From TrEMBL, chain C:
Residues 75-242 form the Thiamine pyrophosphate enzyme TPP-binding domain. One of its GO terms (molecular function) is oxidoreductase activity. Gene3D superfamilies: 3.40.50.970. This is Pyruvate ferredoxin oxidoreductase. It comes from Turicimonas muris.
């Protein structure tokens, strides 16, 4: 059914349709509306046979999910930013144990400096944790991906993060088609665990593994994560058959045929890039886009295949490896290392800075004209940066860095939207 | 695509207005997007919200830099925020105020825009009359509908019914009706002048 | 001729065996049908108090739930010695989580089991969460409090050997003052652990108002079994704190484990009591007060408090702690507690079962 609602509400409804059995949550912006909605659905009885637990920290949230999942229940939680880091030990624990927990990450930057707005630092910080990570382009895809997520995770016994841009998607009102319970039931069967705590078949789970076997355990995990590439594609294909629309999958190409310059991006910025590309097309400039839907596992081969005709690749990277460059850029370089490509790492939208058509057009043009640096910070305010660097050269006691920069930023650029 | 930027202060329901606008557009079969500017919002601080209406799926996510319409829910913002920044040449402006365009010192802007595109509307008065609280959202949206012709009055009233129940929804509906007819009248007068 | 009930007191070892007790009073371990939840073959040290305590605790919980029990276990000695890769000595469904989240994992398990019982019918599977003092009073404290506050249906048992023993005897918030550990060594003007304010987790548990809190020791295993059985008659958050001497960590002879536990209780240093909903309901009395020195002299971790170079003030302060406990809990007395009748369960989620 078509609804015009907030992204968070749509996601909550999608999760409820998946018949979770235990939901645990600790509030953190910008995920709060999702868990609040789920709390209301369970409390009112609309979501039946589901326990909703208000926990005392994100570490507790993931731990409760681990406990319920190992006891055989379909389990869900959500977090962002600092919360994801606070539960990091348990995040690795869940994947190492093979517990198919589904978690929404409402992508948000990580402090210090504290910042509540959208970038990909949080989700990407856990890229080695062993969780699958899929990124939604818009709220319809966020709805759809959560439904696919339960299916993928439970099939493989690997937990999965569904990453949706905080505020930009979670707090935006837009049209979503929310499926019916019958449709979801037909697509997603009840959870049948590979392992569980069962009094009729007692097992010990979570024991220490020594040097003799640790490598094999991790290798098997590595193997199954690679298998996830197929599982993610299949889940998307099955979804299209069942629900009549395309969403999820590994990669989403847009107007790449004949394009020398191809842009790569994750999340909501994909929409803005599509509009930018269409405008540039009218001006006679051909730029293509590949939206990355599955970040972990990273679809190396599939990406290399799609980039066969390209000469330049511009990665819009919303997370920074400090002192190095973009996070996703490294994956792209690895995936295409045998190809002859110019790869540009464009650091954009950190801490929620809007990525505009204007800024993107400028970057794409620069790339096509050979004027783009390999590592480029989009919309960087050089004046503010220079001012601070000068200050630091001249004086030792420059005080807190962030505060100085914010002060300059405001004083140099008063007002504005 | 039609882009609307809404200005107000925290606590005045600016974000809700944008959301209601998107719901109204949805009921008329359009694609619509609404989202707040994501600044730290406190009661009384300037707040901006955005809404886009289109007959195709909306993919753009940037804040609205070139609005086709600007709705200003709090007149005092004229002094402190660049509310008209990026307004398109044929754009619309609706200001919540019982003062005239001249009294607000906006003759120059009015001259630049097509006749009848810049209107002041006593939205808070209507809100106080029916809702008894200074929440001018329904009036602003109905005024927008009348000013631009982009939405029907009934759609605005329907939208408020989805979020509010009973008497509150009804009251907002009355506010909307008052504002709608006021703006229609004002437009007519301006065109005749 | 009048009947005169003879009271039997334990003196060191069991001078009175099961055969003279009513069957209902006998230890679960005496029964050939015992669950053996913690089976033999584990790698605990000779004389390990925790292995003894866990064996009795888990079997008692299994008996009380007719085997419908699953366990979450914190990282620590118990987890390590009971599951030496690739073997396990657990015969019930058992899960090792992390160090600091056992209570939260228990919460999740209990929630899952509630949903499963509702959906599939069948008996409700109950949850036992267990860990050492490190995992309970320090790193796991936040999750523990959260579980208490929500009154989740979990029995949490803390096996307190007063230090991080698994990692080499480091100090925890349960380590008594003046004690030598690897991180509170015998150096400086105040050798050993500092005299802090202490952290009495059983009292903190009581402050949460949870249905059942008890302390116990492996010197009175029947009492421990009784308390576990009683705890399982409640639904909601329950906490049992068991003193389990660690011969290696305490520098004591492995044959003295039970003796140490008894002396800890009889000196007043480890009060043994029960509480329900924040009110104390039962105290195990000290019939004959044991000198604190008798307890401490058996342990090398206290050795620096004795001898000519020792700082007398530490011993005086420790005695004061014992005296304060005696006063606070009313520990001195002659009566032996009668077996308590099962408590009347308050409204803990009875409607949600």
């Amino acid at each position: 059914m078509l609804k015009q609602i907030q992204g968070s509400q749509g996601v909550a409804q999608a999760i409820a349709l998946c018949r979770p059995e235990v939901i645990c949550a600790y509030p953190i912006s910008p995920q709060t509306h999702i868990v609040e909605a789920l709390g209301a659905l369970t409390g009112s009885g609309k979501l039946e046979d589901c326990e909703f637990i208000n926990v005392e920290s994100e570490f507790a949230a993931m731990s409760v999910a681990i406990g319920s999942s190992v006891a055989g229940a379909r389990s869900y939680t959500a977090t962002a930013s600092q919360g994801l880091l606070f539960m990091a030990e348990a995040v690795y624990n869940a994947s190492g144990l093979g517990l198919p927990i589904v978690m929404t990450v409402a992508s948000r930057s990580i402090g210090a400096p504290i910042n509540i707005w959208n970038d990909h630092s949080d989700s990407l910080s856990q890229r080695d944790s062993g969780w699958l990570q899929i990124f939604a382009e818009d709220n319809q895809e966020a709805v759809d991906m959560h439904i696919q997520a339960f299916k993928i995770a439970e099939e493989l016994s690997i937990p999965i993060m569904v990453c949706m841009d905080g505020f930009v998607l979670t707090h935006a009102y837009e049209r979503m088609d929310i499926p019916t319970q019958e449709q979801v039931d037909a697509y997603l069967p009840p959870y049948d665990p590979r392992q569980k705590l069962d009094v009729n078949h007692p097992v010990s789970i979570g024991a220490m593994v020594g040097p003799e076997a640790f490598t094999e355990v991790r290798y098997l995990f590595h193997h199954h994560t690679i298998e996830a590439l197929q599982a993610i594609e299949k889940a998307s294909e099955d979804f299209e058959k069942a629900f009549g629309r395309k969403s999820g999958g590994l990669l989403s190409p847009y107007k790449i045929e004949g394009a020398d310059t191809i842009v790569l991006a994750l999340g909501s910025v994909i929409g803005t890039i599509k509009d930018t590309i269409d405008e540039m097309e009218k001006e006679g400039k051909k730029v293509g886009l590949i939206g990355i839907k599955s970040y972990r596992p990273f679809p190396d081969k599939q990406l290399a295949e799609l980039l066969k005709g390209a000469k330049k690749v511009v990665v819009i990277d919303r997370a920074l490896q400090v002192g190095i460059g973009g996070v996703v850029t490294d994956d792209v370089i690895r995936a295409t290392r045998k190809m002859d490509l110019d790869i540009f790492s464009v650091i954009a939208g950190l801490g929620g800075r809007p990525i505009t058509k204007k800024g993107l057009k400028d970057v794409f043009n620069k790339a096509m004209n050979g004027e783009l640096e390999e590592l480029y910070f989009l919309d960087l305010d050089k004046e503010v940066v220079e001012k601070q660097l000068k200050r630091e050269k001249e004086d030792r006691h420059t005080g807190p860095l962030a505060e100085a920069v914010v002060r300059d930023s405001v004083s140099i650029h008063k007002g504005g939207i | 695509m039609f882009q609307i930027r809404l200005h107000g202060r925290g606590g005045q329901g600016v974000v809700t207005s944008a959301e209601m606008l998107s719901i109204a557009a949805f009921t008329e079969g359009h694609y619509a997007q609404a989202f707040p500017s994501f600044g730290s919002e406190r009661t009384g601080a300037p707040v901006v919200a955005f809404a886009r209406v289109h007959n195709e799926p909306i993919r753009l996510r940037e804040p609205i830099m070139e609005p086709d319409a600007v709705l200003i829910q709090d007149r005092t913002l004229l002094e402190s925020v660049n509310v008209f920044g990026g307004l398109t040449p044929n754009g619309y402006v609706l200001i919540n105020s019982s003062h005239s365009v001249e009294e607000l010192g906006l003759e120059d802007l009015a001259a630049k825009l097509p006749k009848g595109h810049l209107i002041t509307l006593p939205a808070t008065e209507y809100a106080m009359k029916h809702i008894k609280r200074p929440l001018p959202g329904a009036a602003m949206l109905a005024g927008f509908a009348a000013l631009t012709g982009k939405l029907k009055l009934e759609s605005i009233q329907e939208a408020f019914k989805t979020k509010y129940k009973g008497k509150v929804a009804e009251a907002n509906g009355l506010v909307a009706a008052d504002a709608y007819h006021f703006v229609l009248e004002a437009k007519k007068k301006m065109k005749e002048a | 001729m009048s009947e005169h009930q003879i009271k039997f007191y334990q003196t060191g070892t069991f001078t009175v065996g099961n055969r003279l007790l009513d069957p209902s009073q006998r230890s679960g371990q005496a029964n050939i049908e015992r669950f053996n939840s913690l089976n033999s073959g584990h790698r605990a040290c000779q004389g390990c108090g925790e292995a003894l305590g866990a064996r009795y605790t888990v079997d008692a919980a299994m008996k009380a739930t007719d085997g419908n029990l699953i366990a979450a276990n914190a990282t620590g000695c118990l987890e390590v010695f009971s599951t030496p890769y690739p073997e396990t000595s657990w015969q019930l469904p058992w899960f090792h989580s992390l160090f600091g989240n056992t209570a939260a994992v228990g919460t999740g398990m209990a929630a899952a089991m509630r949903v499963k019982a509702k959906k599939n019918g069948g008996p409700l599977v109950r949850v036992l969460a267990q860990g050492g003092d490190g995992g309970t009073t320090d790193i796991g404290f936040g999750c523990l409090s959260g579980m208490f506050e929500r009154n989740d249906d979990v029995l949490y048992v803390c096996y307190d050997n007063e230090g991080y023993m698994n990692t080499g005897v480091q100090r925890s918030s349960a380590t008594p003052p003046a004690v030598r550990t690897a991180t509170t060594q015998i150096v400086g003007s105040h050798p050993g652990n500092a005299f802090g304010q202490g952290k009495e987790v059983p009292l903190i548990a009581m402050a949460h108002g949870i249905p059942y809190v008890a302390t116990a020791s492996i010197a009175d295993l029947r009492d421990l079994e009784r308390k576990v059985k009683k705890a399982m008659t409640f639904h909601g958050a329950r906490y049992i704190h068991v003193l389990v001497p660690c011969p290696l960590g305490w520098g004591a002879a492995s044959k003295d484990t039970v003796k140490l536990a008894r002396l800890a209780q009889e000196s007043g240093l480890f009060p043994v009591f029960e509480a329900e909903y924040g009110e104390i309901t039962n105290v195990t009395k000290i019939r004959k007060l044991a000198p604190v020195e008798d307890y401490m002299k058996l342990q090398k971790r206290y050795a620096h408090l004795f001898g000519p170079k020792a700082d007398q003030s530490a011993l005086i302060r420790i005695k004061a702690i014992a005296e304060r406990n005696i006063r606070r809990f009313g520990l001195l007395g002659d009566e032996r507690s009668e077996p308590m009748p099962p408590a009347v369960q308050a409204d803990e989620r009875a409607d949600r079962l």
